[in-house]
Task: inverse folding
């Protein structure tokens, strides 16, 4: 009898492995890190059929608390990888690429008042975030641009869609006062966030660095200024 139970258990394990191959079996999935638990190819298959697994959806919608640093200065508005810090027309474009496994809630880089929430773009496309940084008219990704006026000047935050990420939420209207590190909105599934800041402000991050929304200092301000 024990031998039959062992054989039956082995058969179940093999069936689950074969059924989910080449993706991880549900028996080992909880033990794996996020990128191996839900491989990119599997996520894209779900998106193509509009049937995202409940476990991944729950993981994706997580919204952990953040510790806003006491040091003054601009904070990263999104979790992700810095892919570009290009400067054009006296504006530095801090491009943050979000993967499927990053937290997708965006936060305010500074204290200030939302001046405008602008709808831009006319299509959904994939590409390098660096290419998207300067696209604002005609053929460019659908995006929302949030302008925030702080005591130090004007910054802007752009939430950009992709083929996979077609829905953007901005949770506040123009005229709303926001504080540094406050939740502002989110993009559903991996995409790009661009922070526009004056080029003369010093920048403490580098291309290839991973940043955390509401925690990573992007630019140090003078003491007492957020």
Result:
């Amino acid at each position: 009898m024990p031998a039959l139970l062992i054989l039956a258990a082995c058969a179940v394990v093999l069936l689950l492995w074969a059924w989910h191959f080449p993706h991880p079996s549900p028996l080992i999935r909880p033990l794996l890190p996020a990128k191996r638990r839900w491989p990119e190819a599997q996520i894209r298959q779900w998106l193509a059929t509009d049937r995202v697994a409940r476990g991944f959806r729950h993981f994706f919608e997580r919204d952990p608390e953040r510790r806003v640093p006491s040091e003054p200065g601009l904070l990263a508005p999104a979790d992700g990888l810095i892919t570009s810090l290009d400067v054009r027309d006296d504006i530095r474009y801090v491009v943050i690429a979000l993967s499927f496994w990053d937290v997708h809630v965006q936060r305010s880089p500074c204290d200030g008042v939302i001046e405008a929430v602008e709808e831009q773009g006319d299509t959904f496309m994939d590409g390098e975030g660096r290419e998207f940084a300067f696209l604002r008219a005609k053929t460019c990704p659908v995006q929302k641009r949030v302008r925030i006026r702080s005591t130090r000047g004007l910054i802007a935050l752009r939430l950009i869609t992709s083929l996979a990420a077609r829905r953007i939420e901005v949770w506040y209207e123009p005229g709303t006062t926001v504080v540094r590190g406050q939740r502002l909105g989110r993009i559903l599934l991996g995409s790009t966030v661009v922070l526009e800041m004056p080029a003369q402000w010093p920048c403490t991050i580098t291309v290839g660095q991973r940043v955390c929304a509401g925690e990573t200092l992007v630019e140090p301000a003078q003491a007492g200024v957020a």
About this structure: Residues 95 and 194 are 5 Å apart (CA to CA). The mean pLDDT is 79. The chain is about 20% helix and 30% strand.
